[in-house]
Records
---
Amino acid sequence: MDQLRQLRYFVAVAEELHFGRAAERLGIAQPPLSQRIRRLEADLGARLFDRGSRRVALTEAGQILLAESKDLLARWERTKSLVGKAHRGEMDAVRIGVPPELAGRLLAALLTAFEARDVRVDLQELTTAEQVRLLADRQLDAGLLQHPVDAVGLELGPAVQTPLGVVLPRDSPLAARSA
């Protein structure tokens, strides 16, 4: 958890661009804050701030860490909230996006698997583009997306193979063909 504290301290300095104001915001003295930031820089092997006599600015490495830190800290807070809800028996339904053309047997298998684990599911019929947007905005917990998909910033899970077939009238000339 020390790394999370270091990230919180880093974000405060990065947002304030002033060690004194960041220390005040965090309710700590400035020297320990400066030490924590130096330790974080040593751990990462990168300078995160350009420190001048009158100003503090983020380095390129600092800008990257700021963006990633905010995401990590938000995910940690969401994780703590979900764990607390589960512990208190207040778990909401898992919000899952599914494409309109999802095969019935696949949908049944999905629902059966969640039911076996006593997890409530809130299915939302959405296109892949809608799911990507809602996943990025954290309005969905998971989604079944059709490939190819631009899932930058999202974690892709296993791919599901859905066999397809062709149905033709019996008297069609194409019905006699095997391929």
---
Amino acid sequence: MSAASVSPAATRARLAAIRVQLRPATAASLLVVAFLAVAVIAPSVLTSGSPTTIDLQHTLLSPSFSHVFGTDDAGRDLYTRAVYGARESLGIGLGATGLAMAIAILLGFAAGLARGIVDAVLTRILEVAFAFPVLLLALLLIAIRGPSVATEIVAVGIGSAPGYARMVRGQVLHVRQAGYIESAVALGHGRWVVIRQHLFPNAIRPLVAVMTLGVGQSIVWASGLAFLGLGVAPPSPEWGALLDAGRDSITTSPWLEIMPGLVIVLVALAVTSLGRTLQHRLEGAAR
């Protein structure tokens, strides 16, 4: 049936179903992600200030109508800095997740398609790497390369990859046993044709939601590293750097920690909620 042949009544029914399925949590998450997208693309739309403007006459002001998040020890508006820091923080989250998934797909498919001793060796390597704490691996990489945005992306990406790789391997093993794979082989399709046209697309599709969940997780990990002084150094407005900058004033000016922390938690929850919703939709479509 072509798109033109779909009746208006059917279209209205689909739109109504979408509205019914759009839960309040999902709608709130979409609003947060939309706000985040604006902050990344055009932060000047959300604030007229500059993240680097110093005002020594208004230092360490608590949150108010004029300064929603308060100000830091240099008089810089914390809300403005959080808005401008969204681009760097989201870049770290997307970069780390993309790197982790690229490594996971390579290792997971290699382990899932291999047989015998090769499969056993790759599986044991993934299990050992998965058991290795992500934080310790990140600390090791940062100690070697020094703190920077690129180092955070590499550290968080490599640390997260083993867990994703195990998921990819399990998905490949599951799809390998599907009836349409056996049918394609019985029809005489070559190995690489079966992998490219049938195995790869069907094994990767459920992982789209996992990638969404990974973005929020990567932002949290990167912020944790920055809080320990191992991420992007102040005066960068990156959210983890904001936490690091306010660490020494946590007892006298708690908003320096609370406000960036709430932003990180809110974004992570919103992205995770959308990832869960997408996962349920994909699982429902698969049925």
---
Amino acid sequence: MSKAKIFIDGEHGTTGLQIRARMADRTDVVLLSIPEQERRNAGLREELLNSADIAILCLPDDAASDAVAMLADNTHVRIIDTSTAHRTSETWAYGFAEMATDQADKIRRSRTVANPGCYPTGAIGLIRPLRAAGLLPDGYPVTVNAVSGYTGGGKQMIAQFEDPANADPITSPHFLYGLTLNHKHVPEMKLHGLLDSAPIFAPSVGKFPQGMIVQVPLHLDHLADGTTLETVHDALADHYAGQSVVEVVPLAASQKLGRIDATELAGQDRMKLFVTGTSGGHQINLVALLDNLGKGASGAAVQNMDLMLSN
């Protein structure tokens, strides 16, 4: 049986490099590669795109859309797009396998898969099960607060943090951005979180390379009647029962925590979900912990690739 040919378009960027690292020791696929000095060779790039069984696009939105257009007539090539370009498209499968009971099958069967964003993976992972269970009502003013490792900003931000000779260095240990509240991930959170209105999203960056915390604080009194800290935890636990990549931390263990470290899952492709607060209280905080380049990007892309190859 021939091995599947995989081409990472944009393999020299942050996400592409991490995908390559995850596949370095694999013998079940063949990696098609373009030398860095040839990365602007449009003819060679198009040839490799059209030679692949699966093309993984690690490109800016416009370049990703151009690559998809190059493959419009070549239906043999299946596509995983890690950009924002197709995440709200009805014709693309959304690449969060644990999001719904049939989502892994949708990814497995699809020709085109939109890899989720890192922040939305955490936010949707927390919100959607509550919407599906009827605990989070229409009209609830959802807020999402998050901090990411600086690798989420790509090579430019990495250089700003790590290169002492950079012309525009970042020395702050933590900073907010997206202050206009129109971050490009908001439509994705709304659609796949099953929300009827856009959440308020407040992203930030910390002075650590990889890791992420996403928080969704909620007032229990404004959720469905009778909702408690325990019923919220049960909804999450039921939704992710049997999953290996997404773990819902037991409520008793979450209650004993004094802190949650954003870097705990750095280098891993898992996600942990916590329900924090006081039993019998009126407020809870839902927390997702992941690696912004793991389950939040490259790890998810490899997971989606493996699902597509299993079809």
---
Amino acid sequence: MPSRIRPAVMGIAAAALVLPLITAPARATADVPRTGFEAGHGAHWTSAREESRFLDVVAHSGERADVRRIGSTRLGRPLRLVRIGARHARNVMLLICGQHGNEPAGREACLITVRDLVRADDRATLTFLRHTTVLVVPTANPDGSAAGTRGNSDGIDINRDHLALRTTEARAVATVIRDQQPDVIYDMHEYEATAPYYDDDLMTLWPRNLNTYPAVRDEAYQLSEGFVRPAAAAAGFTSGHYGIWTDQMTGRPVRQTAGDGQEGILRNMAGIKNAVGLLVESRTDAPDGTGASPDPASRLRHRVAVQLAALKGALRYADRRRGRLDAVTDAARAAGLDDRGPVYLAGADNDPPDAAQILADPPCGYRLTAAQYTRVQDVLDLQGITVRRTADGAVVALRQPERALVPLLLDPRAGHPLTAARPYHGC
């Protein structure tokens, strides 16, 4: 695909774009909470203390929202989850913001959107929130955010830890996914441009892991191409595909720099867990690409504006394709219960695996010794994997909704198994 939106792609969601935005700006009254970023007109990012005060006000704005603590970092900072809308809606959308502490624009967009959804009174938004629960982790890496670092306080990249769950931050996210079963997982990041191939305002990428149910992957692509990128274009921003350097004249890929199928990346884990996942990245340098601006705050405002525009497209997607989301995610979970087809231990939709990396005839499940089960029990539980205890350990069958996740966690041939469990056949 060309780096910049073409009319054919724009046409996919033209009807959605002419309708009113789902999120309406909050009314300009004295009691409207403002983020530290907004209060400073973009001169600085919202601090942890400002975020805490902001969310406290939001939590007391009525029954439409609540804020709860879902964990703590190694340094004791809280990990919070905001719920907006219906408590038990069929559709659930999860926003993950600030996994990398030095990529704050998505976090700011999340906080602003939380406020606007909570206080909106237009019919479109109220209807949307009657049918959809919006969950937001506004700061998924509080220690990294405070330090301005990509990793957490141990230097671990959280967005490579959604399989092994070594970090408290990834464990908190896994708990939310297990308990809430989101249909959409929208993960917000930033990137450094590499001109002239890789310098759009916005980049997106869907799950590329081959264990993603095909219709789920198609919906993630539709989220990107039919809603998020067109929304950015309508706001005057350029967009492209993350990890792919594209020739600006021909629109053809020049080099693949990212975007593989690693299961520890959240957008891939979203697909494996039967959710429509999307990675969204805004660029960190100045809009003109020079890295300079007469008003330094304008660069920060630009980054947040890009994220806000893209997020409004994602909200439109969740609203307009609500019925399709139901059908696709239900079908993906049912496919896992059918226990049919290969499981891929490596590879991506743009990187075919070797034959040795494909379980063409997967086992029925895996047997764990008592010692093995003791070591991995908590991770299996957090990942939502069903386990049957036995006298000498445990048995984990593939016949469950997250079928492909079982070999990735337990097969000795997998790239990063928790333990080398013993496969068994003869279901």
